[in-house]
Amino acid sequence: MNKKVKSLILGATMIMALPIIGGCGGNNIGYVDSQKIMTQTSKSIEINKEINAKGKELQAKVDAADAEAKLQVMTEAKQDFDAFSASKTQELKQYVDQQVNELAKEKKLDVVLLKGAVIGGGVDVTDDLINKMGKASDEDIKAAEAEVNAQDAQQGETQQAQPAEAATAQ
């Protein structure tokens, strides 16, 4: 083989080996299934229950208002609910972030990503995070999963209805 061909083969081999060499540097990647975290940890279920209770409380205020005041009460209730929900969501996010950071240190992970961001490789630390955060009761898990499934079904119905409405409008 001539020198040019050997150089090309060596160069191609090195380029193909780069991902392998990069992986040997100790980059440890973990990932978590966020939906599983949201439906199976006591903290997320507790916060979700608080948000739902606030929504029911505000809906009761709207229902109790007379016809003239109803629009004003609805507007105030929506603003109150949105602020409460955002605050509770931020509280949960900070808690989860703290727990993920602690778990990453314990497991010696360089980074923890969401499951959907990892195409291949990585270590699934979802169950470890659930255990660290406190696993919810089986009853609460089933209720949370049912709620997620109901929301998904409702979104699917809405998306199916929109094309049908557009077709009838034409």
Automatic annotation (TrEMBL):
<feature type="compositionally biased region" description="Low complexity">
    <location>
        <begin position="150"/>
        <end position="170"/>
    </location>
</feature>
<feature type="region of interest" description="Disordered">
    <location>
        <begin position="146"/>
        <end position="170"/>
    </location>
</feature>
<protein>
    <submittedName>
        <fullName>HlpA protein</fullName>
    </submittedName>
</protein>
<dbReference type="InterPro" id="IPR024930">
    <property type="entry name" value="Skp_dom_sf"/>
</dbReference>
<dbReference type="InterPro" id="IPR005632">
    <property type="entry name" value="Chaperone_Skp"/>
</dbReference>
<dbReference type="GO" id="GO:0051082">
    <property type="term" value="F:unfolded protein binding"/>
</dbReference>
